[in-house]
Write a structure and sequence with these properties.
Elements lengths: L6 H10 L1 H22 L6 H23 L5 H4 L4
Helix pairs in contact: 1-2, 2-3
Pfam families: DUF465
Protein name: DUF465 domain-containing protein
Length: 81
C-alpha cells in the first residue's frame, strides 16, 4: 500500500501514533470492502462502491502526508559529537 515505506516503519508508526493506527485500520477495512464488492462477495451499488473508493483514497492520502511530515528519529536528526 505504501511503496516507499518499509513494513517495519509502518508498524512502528502504528505502535506510537494512535491517530495513524486508527486511520490505517480504516484504510485496510475500506480496501477489503472494496475488493469484496468488486469480487461480488457482497452486493453494493455502484454509487456506494464509488464512495467507498473515494474514502479509501482520502485515507491513504492522509496516511502518506502523516508519513511525509513525520519527525525524524533522534539518531538521524542529532549529530553525534
Amino acid at each position: 500500500m505504501f511503496e516507499d515505506q518499509s513494513q517495519s516503519e509502518i508498524e512502528a508508526r502504528r505502535a506510537r501514533d494512535p491517530e495513524f493506527r486508527t486511520l490505517h485500520d480504516e484504510h485496510r477495512k475500506l480496501n477489503r470492502q472494496c475488493m469484496d464488492a468488486e469480487l461480488g462477495v457482497f452486493a453494493v451499488s455502484d454509487v456506494t462502491l464509488g464512495r467507498m473508493k473515494r474514502e479509501k483514497l482520502l485515507a491513504k492520502q492522509r496516511l502518506l502526508r502523516m508519513l511525509e511530515t513525520a519527525p525524524q528519529s533522534q539518531s538521524q536528526s542529532s549529530p553525534s559529537h
